[in-house]
Amino acid sequence: MVGASVANLPSHPFGEGAALETPSFLGTPVIASKFGLLAVTLLLRGKKKLAGFNEQMHESVRTAAPNLIITGAGTWWFPMRTTPISGWSRS
To answer: What is the pTM of this model?
Structure first.
């Protein structure tokens, strides 16, 4: 994605044509995510690497979940309080 940003600068540091289009295409979010997924898949092959990764992710989500829930509830509650449909909450 950084390559796409650099390629699309007004000065066109990579030049024009294919040198501009290739980083722009590879840097789109969907394509960059697919390359990232491929890299992770290749890096996690082997003995117990995937199990260790799953354990780390489980611990991370368990730690972050309360903050995410509180933040999500706050961003949901304010618009609901300020709209006319939410008259029930003001009683």
So the answer is: 0.45
